[in-house]
Amino acid sequence: MTSAAEDMVRCFEEALGLPGVEQWPFEVGRAHLAYGERLRRQGLEVARLAATGLSNPQIASRLFLSPRTVSSHLYRVFPKLGITSRAGLRDALEALPPEPPATRL
């Protein structure tokens, strides 16, 4: 069983691998933007839940992800926040600037 995020990655990679995709540069750019933005938001949500003390399986259950996907998000988020363990998550997240309101394309 795969998670929605894993399915999204697979579909994204398949779509960008189709022959002739280079004919549609704006659509490809829009797909990159939407895909990247979703992963950033999801990674941030995972980090916030981890900062509250939840375990990877607990976070996975709340966000309908696999524990391995949660672990992967944290693995990518830690270096971006300049931390090496969960202990620094809360302080690192509090130091982030506020997010701008979400906009729809």
Break the fold down into its secondary structure elements and pairings.
Blueprint: H1 4-16, H2 25-51, H3 56-63, H4 67-81, H5 89-94
Helix pairs in contact: 1-2, 2-4, 3-4
Name its key features:
single chain, 105 residues, mainly alpha, 5 helices, 0% strand, elongated
Q: Outline the low-pLDDT stretches.
A: none
Rg over CA atoms, rounded to whole Å, is 16 Å
Question: What characterizes the major β-sheet?
Answer: none
Helix percentage range: 55-70%
SSE pattern, N- to C-terminal? HHHHH
Shape category = elongated
Strand content: under 5%
Straight-line N-to-C gap: 31 Å
The number of helical segments is 5
- Assembly status: single chain
- What is the number of strand segments? 0
- On the 0 to 100 scale, the average pLDDT is 79
Structural class: mainly alpha
How does this structure look, described?
It is a single chain. This protein has 105 residues and is an all-alpha fold. Helix content is 66%, strand content 0%. The protein is built from five helices and no strands. It has helices at residues 4-16, 25-51, 56-63, 67-81, 89-94. Helix 1 (4-16) runs antiparallel to helix 2 (25-51) and helix 3 (56-63) crosses helix 4 (67-81). The longest helix is centred in the middle third of the chain and has 27 residues, at 25-51. The two termini are 31 Å apart.
